[in-house]
Amino acid sequence: MSVPPAKKVEIPQQVLDLIHDDEELFRSMPPQEMAKYGGKWIATKSKQVVAAAGTLGELYRQLDAKGLRPACITYIEDPNYVVIYALH
Length: 88
Prior knowledge:
The chain has helices at about 15-30, 30-35, 55-65, and strands at about 40-45, 50-55, 70-75. The chain is an alpha+beta fold and about 90 residues long. It has one domain (about 15-75).
C-alpha cells in the first residue's frame, strides 16, 4: 500500500496558541485535579478548563452556549483503567 506524500499545512497562530496553553495547563495541573476529569472530554482556553462533559456532543453544546469557540479539546482517560498504546 502506497502512502501519499505529506503536504505542508499552514496552522493559524490562534490554533498554535491554544495548543501551547493546553500543554502548559496539563504540565502544571496536579494529578488529583486531572483525575476529576477522568473519562471526560474537556475544553481548555487561556490556560484553564472552560468546559467538561461525558460526550463530545455535550462539550460542543456547552462551548456554543458560552460562546467559547475555538477551544482546545482533549479526552482525559479514566484513571481507573489502564490504557496500552502499541506501535507495530
